[in-house]
């Protein structure tokens, strides 16, 4: 090869072709159709992390200190994904140990929500999801988070995912909403309220 390395030195290819027939594997090795609600929930969680990544980039450009928290949330969403990808019905003890999801991150989100809420003016009307790029991207992340939660709740109800995962996504949407308001306030952007069209 041109760089002198052998073929075996090269990184593995990004495509595996194992999903070409419309099936994919859970963490437990179970093959399920790609339309299975587990993959729906995984996809929504991945989209949520990507949306938060974008919000983090906009917020970083404005020098917001909460960007570190957003990075931590993205790491937690990897753990959310691991839990979703480990359906309890086919999980062995070793799987459960590696992918369990505790209540600790839920409590941390609640602390963050309280801390930002204390600094915000009370809400007196419906606000529109705008307020500068950081704020708008955080509002968008919140909407994606709601969808991820709607995908996860049936898995929890069926006993396939940990209830703390649904709780985490529920608190996360509240956190993203409060953070969107906080970002707008810090950037001196006015909140636009809903006005019924004439």
Rg measurement, Å: 20 Å
Helix content: 55-70%
Proportion of residues in extended strands: under 5%
Q: What structural class do the secondary elements suggest? A: mainly alpha
Q: Which CATH class? A: Mainly Alpha
The biggest beta sheet reads:
2 strands, antiparallel
Count of helical stretches: 6
Summed up, the domain count is 1
CATH superfamily descriptor: Cobalamin adenosyltransferase-like
Overall geometry comes to globular
- Give, in spatial order, the strands making up the sheet with the most strands: 1-2
| DSSP strand count | 2
List the helices and strands and how they pair.
Blueprint lengths: L22 E3 L5 E3 L3 H25 L5 H18 L8 H7 L4 H14 L15 H25 L5 H24 L12
Helix pairs in contact: 1-2, 1-5, 4-6, 5-6
Would you kindly provide a written description of the structure presented here, covering whatever features stand out?
Homotrimer. The radius of gyration is 20 Å and the shape is globular. Helices cover 57% and strands 3% of the residues. The longest helix is centred in the N-terminal third of the chain and has 25 residues. The termini are far apart. It contains six helices and two strands, in the order ββαααααα. The protein is mostly helical.
């Amino acid at each position: 090869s041109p760089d002198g390395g052998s073929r075996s030195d090269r990184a593995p290819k990004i495509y595996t072709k194992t999903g070409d027939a419309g099936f994919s594997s859970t963490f437990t090795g179970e093959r399920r159709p790609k339309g299975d609600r587990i993959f729906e929930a995984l996809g929504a969680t991945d989209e949520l992390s990507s949306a938060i990544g974008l919000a983090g980039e906009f917020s970083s450009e404005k020098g917001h200190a909460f960007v570190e928290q957003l990075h931590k949330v993205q790491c937690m969403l990897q753990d959310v994904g691991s839990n979703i990808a480990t359906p309890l019905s086919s999980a062995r003890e070793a799987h459960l140990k590696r992918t369990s999801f505790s209540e600790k991150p839920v409590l941390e989100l609640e602390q963050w929500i309280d801390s930002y809420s204390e600094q915000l003016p009370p809400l007196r009307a419906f606000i529109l999801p705008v307020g500068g790029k950081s704020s708008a991207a955080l509002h968008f992340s919140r909407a994606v988070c709601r969808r991820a939660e709607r995908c996860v709740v049936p898995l929890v109800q069926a006993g396939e995912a940990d209830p703390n995962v649904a709780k985490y996504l529920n608190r996360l949407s509240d956190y993203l909403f409060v953070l969107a308001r906080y970002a707008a306030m810090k950037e001196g952007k006015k909140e636009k309220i809903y006005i019924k069209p004439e």
